[in-house]
Amino acid sequence: MRxxxxxxxVAAITSAGLLLAGCSGGKGSSGGSGEANAATKxxxxxxxxxxxxVTYAISDxxxxxxxxxxxxxxxxNFSRLYARPxxxxxxxxxxxxxxxxxDLAESMGKPTDGGKTWTYKLRKGVKYDDGTEVTSQDVKYAxxxxxxxxxTLSLGPNYFQQFLKDNDGGYKGPxxxxxxxxxxxxxxxxxxxxxxxxxxxxxEFDYLVSAPQTAPVPQAKDKGADYTKSVVSTGSxxxxxxxxxxxxxxxxxxxxxxxxxxLRKQLPDKIVLNLKVAQSTIDKDLQSGNTLVDxxxxxxxxxxxxxxxxxxxxxGNTDNTLGQRLVYTALNTNVKPFDNIECRKAVEYAIDxxxxxxxxxxxxxGELASTVLPTDIEGYQKYDLYPQKYDxxxxxxxxxxxxxxxxxxxxxxxxxxxRNDRQDEVDAATSVIDSLKKIxxxxxxxxxxxxxxxxxxxxxxxxxxxxxVGMIMMQWGSDFPTGYGYLxxxxxxxxISQSGNANLSELDxxxxxxxxxxxxxxxxxxxxxxxxxxxxxxxxxxxALVPLTYFKVLMYRSPKATNLxxxxxxxxxxxYLNIGVKK
Length: 583
Hints:
Layout: H1 16-21, E1 53-57, H2 73-79, E2 87-89, E3 100-102, E4 110-112, E5 117-121, H3 136-148, H4 159-163, E6 186-190, E7 193-197, H5 205-208, E8 237-243, E9 247-252, E10 270-274, H6 279-288, E11 293-294, H7 302-309, H8 312-315, E12 318-331, H9 341-350, H10 353-360, E13 366-368, E14 390-391, E15 394-395, H11 398-407, E16 412-419, H12 423-436, E17 441-448, H13 450-457, H14 461-466, E18 469-477, H15 483-491, H16 510-521, H17 525-541, E19 545-556, E20 561-562, E21 580-581
Parallel strand pairs: 1-10, 1-11, 16-17, 16-18
Antiparallel strand pairs: 2-3, 4-5, 5-7, 6-7, 8-9, 9-10, 12-18, 12-19, 13-19, 14-15, 20-21
Helix pairs in contact: 9-11, 10-12, 15-16, 15-17, 16-17
């Protein structure tokens, strides 16, 4: 998931036992709201109290609320309030949050044909907010629109497009399918059964269908790109109103039933998301209780961080954790001079990672990185192909200058992209620019809003070629917590798309592509993890990206919020499924 999503996860515990045990607020918690990192170890402010309004805020506006047209982890997380995918993650602290469980499906998938066919049975009695029943045809349609109508819905991942059996037949999506027959590779033999036929085995398919792209969409209610304004709900909450760029309000879905949903509760009366709120304002509102959750989960800004860490009481309301994320600079392998591997290797040595780390907020916001895989993803192996040497605080540029001389680019200019509503990212890009000046690279920064970053700029190869974009700032979290879920979309040449692209290096290496394809077909988990480590090293040999930090987030935990727990499942954010209001 471009799970560049912000991450420092807090998840609402959904097991009835835990919620009932903590109905008074504190009992059953492993730590109170005044204990640092309490939500990384267990539930904080456990409660089943109903009523009130949970208020979220975000510094920009999400690219889309459409479950089939998004690739940010915070919307994957948030959308579960109104959209139920086939599977999802069971809320739990830390790595416990990586446990995959059935959601819309009544059980995990049943693989046959050596893992090339996967069958799911839907829970009976699940209804949309208008009272109509959900069918398997709605799940099929959801996948068709989200993966094959890329000219209309381009922002989500394209796994299904890559792996479904009959994609080579030229299917152009439901908006252009005059026959209305849809994909042959997704069968719906009855209203409760959906069958996926793949080109090759996919051992981790249950993870793949946890994406909100499998949340059902009734074709009659689909409005294409405008569906984001009035999504039809299958979750515990539904859209009440949406003011684009200002506010989204959710209210209880009267058609939701706990009998068909063992994960969700309907605790608050209302959920309000305020858009385009300055990060400094969000931080203050979290402390006052006017806002309960920072939707993006990127953590507090630098000034707030300094204040929190010097106040023992306030520090006790923070959670600092890894979230399966890497901060890096993507080097565009199709833009000069970075189409030359020696130029890329020079940059690997030249970027002062300690300076970048400082610009991001110091070690509390992430340790120095040397690999593509973060340390908390299975398959990670420690190594460093481009070790940096320092004389005091000064980076030794001997190796950088040697490789730059080999590439023969001399003094050159380029453009680096960053998101303008993420000051830490802009600061990191500025630090990168300062480093590269020392080897003869003059880079100018162009910054764009998060809401358009991948659809219009960083994720558009034609834009990057035309505008001499040689470097792109990126923060990536796993689509699902495996090496494949982390590596596929940013490294496989087949994942490159003309908009909404996450392979920002535009790397298309046949050996890496083959290793990814072979690994995911292997039912041996240990063998897959070994392959992921090999892919990691081969990517670094290509110097396609510069790992900067293994991202950590410092989240302020509102003492007025209930059922908070920090989970890895959504890149370290708070799990949004059952957050309530403290009474």
